[in-house]
Structures are given as C-alpha cells and as structure tokens.
From TrEMBL:
Ranges where the CBS domain occurs: 206-267, 270-330
Species the sequence originates in: Thermosulfurimonas dismutans
Transmembrane segments: 6-30, 89-108, 129-151
Protein's name according to its UniProt entry: Magnesium and cobalt efflux protein CorC
CDD domains, per database record: CBS_pair_CorC_HlyC_assoc
Length: 420
C-alpha cells in the first residue's frame, strides 16, 4: 500500500466516525412528534429513519460499533503513518493530533450539526445507516448475545427506554406549556399527579385501621337506625368478632330503604361484598379497579391478610386532583399571610408555589409539597402542635387529617435561628 494513500484513509475513517456520531445525535434527539412526522413523510428516506427507530437497541448498537471501529482504525493508521514518516518520535505527534481531530471533527462538530438539523440529517443518513446495520449484523448479534448473558449472570434487567422517554417528553411539554401560559397550574398539577399515582401505594392515602368506623354484625333496631342517620358515613364495614373478619360493606341507604322489610334481621343480610387490596397496590391501579367494579371503597390488607386501612374513591380523587378536587369543597386560601413572615399553608401546596408567593427559597428537590418537606424535617408523622426548624423557617403542624398534614403555620426565622 502506498504510504501517501494512508492520509486519505485516515480522512475517510474520521468522516465515517462523524457520520455515526451525527446519526446518533440526529435520530435519538427526535421527539415522538418528529418521529410521527417522518413516519408519514412523502420521502422514503424519512420513512426509513422512523422505521430504524422502531428498534432503538439495534440501531444504537450499530452506531456505537461503527463509531468505535472508525475511531480505532483512524487512530491506528495515524500512528503508523507518523512512525513511518518521522521515526520513533512520530507517535508523540500522532496521539495528540488524532485525539484533537476526532474530538472536533468526529464528535463535537457532527453532534452540533445533528442536533441543529436533526430531521434533515435523519432523512439524509438513514440509507447509509441501514447498510451499516446489514453489514455489522453478525458482530452486533454476537455482542448483544454476550451482553444479555452477562446481564443474566449478574441478575440485571434492562429497562425499556420507550416509557421513560414518553414520560419525560410529556413532562417537558407540560412545563413548556405552563411557562408559556397555555396550561394553568391546576392542569399542570393534575398531569403530574397522574404520573405520581403510578408509584404511590394505597397505604400512603388510606385511613389507618385505628380510625376506621366499622360495626359488628348485629340485629337491626330502631336505636341503630337512629344512630346511622346521625353519622357522616354512607358506607360501613361490617365484621364478626373483630375487624379482620369483615363480612361485607353496608350501604346506609340500603338499610334505610329496607327497614320496613320484617324478614331482614341483621346488618350482614344487607351488606354488599367487600373489596380487598394489598397495601402495595398503586393508586392509579386502584382507580381503574373502582371504575371496573363500579364501587367506591376498598379495604387494605397487609401481607398477613390483616386489615390495615380503608381507602375510598374520594381519597383517590384527592390524591390525583389535589387542589382541583378540594377547591370545590372549600374556598379557604392555600397560602394565608398571618403577619410579617408568618403564613398559614395547606399541606398540599407546591413548594415552588410557596417560594413564588413568599419569596422563600425552600428546596424543591426530593419534595413536592409543603407537607412532604415538613415530614422530612420531623422524620415521622407529627402531632398537631409539633414544631420543627429548617431551611430558615419554623414549621408548626396546625391540623392533621386522615394521617396527613392538612395545614401548617410557617414562620420565617431571624438571626442565628435562620441558619438552622
């Protein structure tokens, strides 16, 4: 091989590295909306780009393999050329030169181009990428099989990038719409709550066992009817001996309608089947079950089958809709200024909203609401009147409801206390 053909080969492999880098940046920066546009594009090369993205693992493996091969060959040829041309000292020139060239022309510049012209680049580069996929298929299959074997040996699992990408993309679009004013704070909160409901277990929103109002199975009497008319509950668990032996759910309206039927003697005869869910059931899943079964209450059981709590459709809606749901019931302000640097704050208030309203700088990383931040400071569920200091504020629990911090008195600290 003529030694002066080597520089041309080096340039070729540097350009090949640029091709793979630009392809990766362009294709994997396409949003789902961009991909949908390409899928229906009149140009076949654009439709091919969308088709390649249907198997992102295969595509990414091909690109990374091609990039590594191009970098290795270009580096090797550069070192050989400089050694032949300049002797033993040539390698000291070759290493920094090829490193700089690959960084600028093989990495930085193609990434900028790929990001700036992602749709055009995706269409332009799709056919060469398909050829690379076919050419590198044997090596790719071998490496993927090896990687999967290693994953199995170490008990590792792969995560599908599609769901993560979709969620992050939706959140990004929501933030853009919110900042532009196209989306209101309540709609923004609702969308975020839907995502969080995928992770929130029902144990986090249930009424705990000790607060459950239930009745032991008994004869129906006039005194019992009078009592049931006075209580605020419309659905009551009925049990025998103890709460872990629930026999059904009594709908008070059923009892009041049937009170004239002399053949009905006990509460259990009117009760409807109870629905039990494990503590780890996700809120979103429970809502789907409520809709499917057309019910509004579930009893929560622990791993031993013991009743640990009760959750209603109202609890689920409150968790999902937050401020929207409760705003219908109450017109109390979410943040009320009581004095200089003193505020009454609902526990469900977003930390970002509190900061914006008061000029505070409370951390929003790891916490979503003021109640969540307060729980972090207390390290346990506090009692009404308990206080904790942190982030330059004193947090006093004003009201606890259903095992949650309903409202807080938040006071800005001055002097040395502000540094606690």
């Amino acid at each position: 091989m003529d030694i002066w053909l080597v520089p041309a080969a080096i340039v070729f492999f540097v350009l090949l590295s640029s091709f793979f880098t630009c392809s990766e940046t362009a294709l994997f920066s396409l949003s789902r909306i961009d991909q949908a546009k390409l899928k229906n594009h009149p140009r076949a090369s654009c439709r091919l780009a969308a088709e390649l993205l249907r198997d992102p693992q295969k595509l990414l493996t091909t690109i990374l393999m091609g990039n590594e091969i191009a970098d290795i060959i270009s580096s090797g040829l550069t070192s050989w050329f400089f050694l032949k041309t300049f002797g033993p000292y040539g390698k000291w020139l070759a290493y920094p030169l090829i490193t700089a060239v690959l960084f600028v022309w093989g990495d930085l510049f193609p990434k900028v181009l790929g990001l700036k012209f992602r749709e055009k680049a995706a269409c332009l580069l799709s056919r060469p990428l398909l050829a690379a996929e076919i050419l590198l298929a044997p090596l790719r299959i071998l490496l993927l099989s090896l990687a999967q074997t290693i994953f199995r040996v170490f008990g590792l699992t792969t995560v599908s990038p599609k769901s993560v990408t979709a969620e992050e993309e939706i959140k990004h679009l929501v933030e853009k719409a919110y900042l532009s004013g196209a989306l209101g704070p309540q709609e923004r909160l609702f969308i975020y709550s839907l995502f969080e409901s995928e992770e929130t277990p029902v144990s986090a929103i249930m009424t705990p066992r000790k607060d459950i109002f239930a009745l032991e199975d008994q004869k129906i009497t006039e005194n019992l009817l009078h009592t049931l008319k006075e209580i605020p509950f419309h659905k009551i668990p009925i049990y025998r001996e103890h709460l872990d032996k629930v026999v059904g759910i009594l709908y008070v309206q059923d009892l009041l309608k049937a009170r004239l039927h002399t053949e009905i003697h006990k509460l259990s005869e009117l009760s409807r089947p109870a629905f039990f869910v494990p503590e780890k059931t996700r809120v979103r899943k429970l809502l789907e079950e409520f809709q499917r079964r057309r019910i509004k209450m579930a009893l929560v059981v622990d791993e031993y089958g013991h009743i640990s709590g009760l959750v209603t459709l109202e609890d689920v809606l409150e968790e999902l809709f937050g401020e929207i749901y409760q705003a219908r019931e109450s017109k109390e302000p979410l943040i009320e200024k009581l004095g200089e640097g003193i505020y009454r704050v609902k526990g469900r208030v977003q930390i970002e909203d509190f900061n914006r309203e008061t000029g505070a700088h409370l951390p929003a990383e790891g916490f979503r609401t003021m109640a969540g931040l307060a729980l972090h400071l207390f390290q346990e569920l506090p009692k009404e009147g308990d206080e904790a200091k942190g982030y330059g504020f004193r947090f006093q629990v004003e009201k606890i409801q259903k095992n949650r911090i309903e409202s807080l008195i938040v006071e800005r600290l001055e002097g040395d206390e502000a540094h606690l």
